[in-house]
Amino acid sequence: MRASTSNKLKKTGRTLFSLLFWLLVWQLAASAVGQELLIPSPKAVLEELRGLLVQLSFWQAAGTSLLRVFGGFAIGVMLGILLAVLTQASSLLDALFSPMLRVIRATPVASFIILALLWLAKPLVPVFVAMLMVVPVMWGNVSAGIASADRALLELASLYRFGWLKTIRLVYLPAIAPHFFSGSIASLGMAWKSGVAAEVLCLTALAVGTKLYYAKIYLETPSLFAWTAVVIMLSYLLERAFLTLYNALRKRQKGGAL
Question: How far is CA 105 from CA 6, 100, 138, in A?
Answer without folding.
Answer: 41, 9, 11
